[in-house]
Amino acid sequence: MTNEKRSPFASLMQTLSRIEPCEMKATFASFIFVFLLMTSYNILKPIRDSMASDWSDSEVSWLWTINFFLTLGVNFIYSAALSIARLKVVVPSVYGFFALSFVVFAFGHQAFSDPVVINKAYYIWVSLFALFHISVFWSFMADLFNKEQAKRLFGFIATGASVGGLVGPLIPTVLAAFVSNDMLMVIAALMLIPVILLIALLERLKSTELQNADTSDSVVQKQTIGGNPFAGFTLLLKSPFLIGISVFLFFYTSLGSFTYFELKNLLATYDSATRTQIQAGITLAINALTIITAMFATGRIASRYGLSVTLALIPALMTGGFVTVGILASVWLVVGLQVVLKAGNYAITRPGREMLFTLVDREARFKTKPVIDTVVYRGGDVLNGWSFAALTEGLHLGMGPVAFVGAVVAGIWALMGVVLGRAYNKDKSTDG
CA dist 281 to 53, 321, 341, Å? Predict the structure, then answer.
C-alpha cells in the first residue's frame, strides 16, 4: 500500500490530517456516518426543547428521572440483543429502529386530539437517542480501527459530528415556517437510513483496505458478541480500567453541570433576546472551534504527546479557568469556560476517551460502553445538578467559592486522564 500512487487530494489529506490513502474511504465514510447521525439529532432536538416550554420545572424533572430509568432498561435490551444476534445485524438495527420510532411519533401526533402525553414521550425518547446513538457509533469505530489508526483518525472523524451540529439546526430553522414538526421528524428519520448502508460498507472496508479483521477469533465469535445480557453492568463493576473511564466521564459531567448552572444564573440579569443571542453565539463558537481543532490538531496531539496529554489537556485548562473565575468572577469568563469545555471535549477529550475502548474486548466495547456513555452520564447529570444546588442554595456559596470547587474537580479530572493515558500506553488488552 505504501507504493500506491497517491492523488493530490490524498497527499493533501495525509499532510493536513495524517490519513493514509488506504484509510481514506473508511475515514470519510465514518465522517459522513456521524454527520448524518448528528444532523438527524439536531433536527429532532429543537422540537423536543420547544415542547419543554409548555411544562413546569417539576414536570421536566420527572421526565429526566423517567429518562434515566428508561436508559437502564434500554441498555439491558441492547446487551441482550448483542448476546444472541450477530453484530452486523444489531448495530444497523439500532438505527433502523430509531428511524421507525420517529416516524411513529410523527403519525402519533395526528392520531391523538390531546398530544401532551405523546409529546412527553417524545421528549424522553429523544433524550435517550441523544446519548445512545453516538455511543453505539463510537463502539463501532473502536471495533473498526486499530489503536494506532484511532490516534490519528478519531479527531478528524469527530469533526463530522460538529458539522452535523451546524447543519442540523439550520434545517428546522429554515423549514419550520413551511412544514410541521411531524414532517421534520420524518426528515430526521430518513437521514438515518443511509447510515445502515454505511455500516455495511465499513464492515467490508475493515477486512479489505484497513486490514483489521480479527483473525484470532473464531467465525462464531465474529458473528455474535455472546455472553451474559447483563454483562454491560457486570463487566464495568469488575474492571478497574472501565471504572476509571466512568469516573473520568463523571468528572466531565460535573464540570459541565457547574458551567451550565453558573452561566444560567449569570444570564438571569439579561433579557430573553440577549440570552438567546449569547447562547447561539456560544453554540456557534463551540462548533467552529471543534471543527478546526479536531480536523487538524487532535491527531497530532495524540500521536506526538500520547494519550495522557490528550486526556489531561482540557481538564488542565479548566483547572486554570475555574481558578481565574474564582478570582475575577466574570460572565464572559464563564462563557469562555463553556466554549473551551464543550469544544475541547468534542474535539480532543472525547476522541481520546474513545481510543481507550480499542484496548478492551468486543463484549466490553459494545455492552459496557453504552452503559458508561448513557447510564453513567445521565446519573452524573442528576447527581451533579443536586450537588450544585446544595452548594448554592444549601450552603449559599457564591460564584467564587463554587468556581474553586470546580477547579478542584477539574484537577482530579486531569489526574484521571493521566492515569488512563498511561494504562493505554502499556498497550495490552484490559479486562480488569
Answer: 21, 20, 15
Q: How far is CA 98 from CA 125, 130, 158, 312, 391, in A?
A: 9, 11, 21, 35, 39
Question: 198-224 burial, b for 16+ CB within 10 Å, e for fewer?
Answer: bbeebbebbeebbebeeeeeeeeebeb
Residue 228 Rama label (left phi>0; alpha psi -120 to 50; beta):
beta
| CATH at 249 | 1.20.1250.20
Residue 86 — φ and ψ, nearest 5°? -70, 145
Residue 224 is classified by DSSP as B
7: in domain: no
At residue 10, does pLDDT exceed 80?
no
Residue/partner pairs of 118-121 with CB below 8 Å, 24 or more apart: 119/51, 119/54, 120/51, 120/55, 120/59, 120/63
Global pTM value: 0.71
Residue 10 resides in a domain? no
- 358: Cβ–Cβ under 8 A, 6 or more apart, which residues? 142, 145, 146, 147, 150
Average of per-residue pLDDT values in the chain = 81
Confidence (pLDDT) at 431? 42
Structural domains counted in the chain: 1
Q: Which of 5-19, 186-200, 316-330, 358-372 has the lowest mean pLDDT?
A: 5-19
409-419: per-residue pLDDT in tens?
A: 999 999 999 99
Domain carrying residue 152: 17-425
pLDDT in tens, 168-185: 878 877 777 788 888 989
Task: List residues bridging with 86 in a β-sheet.
Answer: 224
Q: How far is CA 294 from CA 71, 113, 285, in A?
A: 29, 46, 14
For residue 348, the surrounding DSSP H or E stretch is: none
For 288-306, what is each residue's pLDDT tens digit?
Answer: 888 888 777 777 888 788 8
